[in-house]
Specification:
The complex is a heterotetramer. Chain A is an alpha/beta fold. Helix content of chain A is 28%, strand content 14%. The chains are: A alpha/beta, B alpha+beta, C mainly alpha, D mainly alpha.
Chain lengths: 390, 183, 119, 322
Amino acid sequence: MAVNEDALAYHHPLYDLMLNVPGLAVGLAPVDRLLTWGLKNSLWVFPMATSCCGIEYMAASASRVDIDRMGTIPRASPRQADVMLVAGTITVKMAPRVKRLWDQMPEPKWCIAMGSCAISGDFYRNLYSVVPGIDTFLPVDVYVPGCPPNPEAVMHGLLRLQEKVEAARAGHPVNAEPPPELFGAISPSLPRLTDQNRPPELSEEQVQASLTVVPEGDPGEVPVDLTPPSIPGALPDGVSTELAPLLKDRFGVAEIPADAPPLVPAERHVELAATLKALGYRQLVFVAASHHPAKKDGEAEAFEVAYALRTVGAGSKVASWRVRVPATESVPTLTPTFAGADWQEREQFDLVGVRFSGHPDLRRVMLPENWEGHPLRRDYPADHAAAPWR
Amino acid sequence: MGYLLDGLKSMWTTALNAIRPPFTQEFPKVLRPHPERYHTSFALLHDETGDEACTGCGACARICPSQVITVKLGKRESAITQKKRGYADDFTLDLTACLVCELCVQVCPTDAIVMLKVPELPGFRREDLVLSMPRLYENEKSKPLGWSNATKLMAMQDPKAGAAKPEPSKETAPAPAAAGAAS
Amino acid sequence: MSGWTGLFVFLVVSVVMIGGLLAAAWMLRVKARRDSPLKRHAYECGEEPDGPAWIRFHPRYYVVALFFVLFDVEAAFFFPWAIRERALGWAGLGSIVVFTGVLLVGWAYALRKGALKWQ
Amino acid sequence: MTLFAWLSSILVAVIVLTVTAFGLWWERKLAGRMQSRLGPTIVGPIGLFQPIADLLKLVQKEPIIPQRADRALFWLAPPLTTLFALLVAALVPFGPKLAPANIDVGVPLIIALGGLALIPVWMAGWASHNKYALLGAMRAVAQSVSYGVPLVLTALVPVILAGSMNLNSIVAWQHRHHWLVVWPVFLGLPAFILFILAMLAEANRIPFDIPEAESELVAGVSTEYTGMHFGFIYLAEYVHTLVGSAVASTLFLGGWDGPFGPSVLWMVLKTCLLFSVLYWLRWSLVRLRADQLMALAWKWLVPAGLALVLLAAVWTQTPWGR
């Protein structure tokens, strides 16, 4: 009846008109109650289940809790759903998809953030790739705490949503003002959609953030002084003994460290890989790059890339080495020798920013195309303002 | 043919299921009994003297993997024992990012923080899920407390005692809010 | 004749009922205050729609349609025979057996040619 | 006569729609029990008002027409699916001569109307301008077209035995002799099973629901539909199944014929029973692949249908079937 026009994201055009006819409003009161009753008792769910909370949601649909009892059925298409149940970590790459699906749902619609990851990003919330709470870009109606919440909590969340639907239609929306003493208690303290003092254009910005490249200043000015760690000898067992004479005799490597793979000159390492492949090291296990920022003693910024190969079959042997190049130079690609190096090198380019010369398709593989910077560089700030959705 | 046989078999199964009593426990009416170390929400306790058990040492805040606990240390004289000691001037547990991993309970030197057996109510705002100090002490009074606290968990790990540990009683009624309930 | 009148009346009633539901839906529909430009994009699991949907389809569907035209038209011939079946006696039966035989030869030929291979 | 037509039409249409609505509830209840759940319990007594709540919710949803859709077709298709599915109900006799339309060419008309219901499905799929919807519509058409042939052939069996295409006469014949599934059992039972299979395929129900296979096609034809328009597609599917089971019980289970009591009761009883069995099938079986579906129709059901027709013809020529 007394639908609070400003509190809801939708309105009934014709129904509102009818309410303005004198005398009709009284007659329509039971109709309105009936409509609200229908609205709150038929909440069809669009499960936006991305990780472990999704399993709990499934359990909620299954026999023990059975949310079908309250008329909640899952719909595969957002067009027919009323509630988006975000269950799981939403990454920055996923967020535009979630937003699009949310937009494609017809009004009236609601959103339930299930579990810590959806509410706040959980302990990934300062990570470069995770959205710190879906309420930075979606209007969330009910927050279900837990990590993950148990199936009963999902149903409880839906029951709370019913309360909210009813209250909103009755004209007193339930989350009007947050208690002031709790401001700032939540970290990271990012503007949320429900914040009163949130600039309205922020939402639009966040939508656009992942759709277009936002020009930003150079983020690489943050002073970071960390001693470059040596790549740990991750492969203590089974490291090949035939590697040492090979490196000393043919590749002129002077010393072979005990706790790290030997350093090979960048221009020779493709040849080394080919030689090892001929010796039976047929599988490229990993390509792992690390970033070493410039140090105070004059050592220039550099990248180290570690490679590991292994023989296939029983009694497998491992051969690993590393390559160190200044940040301005590139590492020759291993793609012609090992086809599997293609994506692994792309990944290192994506996350660390190492360039591989001769690589056939050097573009981002994990992060969105418009991502700025390389998040695993040591000078990449943890809470990067330029990262989308932040 | 295989499909036909399997189809008949599955039809038999569903028919049997249909006449069996269903598993469903009707949630708002019937509550499933929770285990004693059920991980949900938190409460701060009073010690046996009736004073606040928390000394504000911040061990929980340091161990918390997702850094949701903020403790503000204050030193003052106790109103009950008249001794000067540490207190938490402010204690906030942000349930929105909590992992419910129980580490804070395990490290607490004074058994001040324990878990509850009932989950926190789903909230309409993020702020509804922030457990401020009054709410944490309120939880002690009004909600059933879990079995585990730091002392009991430590005792479980004592090699001399072995794995033998007093299995908690099966009562599911809310524990009385009396001081020392968890010591 | 009366049967057809009944059918017509039923048609009118159904149209009115369905129209009534439509009218109710039109009257009670809600409207969003703010429309997102993404709302009216085609649903493609949250991705940008990739090209138009009105694309060319595999011809296997066409073959099924051809099959249908063949058999359904033949099946329609059965009806006049079916209601007069008793009166026509063994002679009618013999002729329909021949007809079915010819049909089945065509059916076997099509199957042999792999008309229903779904690849 | 006209008054009777109006009254019976309104009555039948209302009853079919109501029964369908509560059929939805019944299905969810049954599905719940088959999965050791309860099904709807909260909305109304034993969840009985669940379909009403769903309906009230659906009429309030915001209608969305996709950007590149064919607007007119998109709007028109879902009401038409319900209309065509509903029209068949006019021909089903609920008692001796008790049908809104008692037409002499009943059997072919039913099959024709069932085939007509295909057109709005295709309209919906095409107009949505959505790949899932189009693929779903494509599959729906291929499937219905394939299963139309065995449907026609199996419906011929009662026609041959009764010597009439009027549904009322067919039931009357069963009343005079036996229900078709009872005797001649070697004709009636296989024909009945074949008819049910073909009818399920026409209504796109499991195990023949590849047009809307959730795991691959989201929601098939109805992917882009919101609110009441989706409701119409949803409703049509159930009306189709309900009316289909009414037709099947008319043709093979003796329709309104029963040992005692009013004829309408028997008809309703048989229809609801068959309806429930179809749900039982739905919640027990897995769906077939598209090629298996086509192979089943063309390699097995069509020849089997032809054989049944010929067998029925031979039977009527023998002294027992005369």
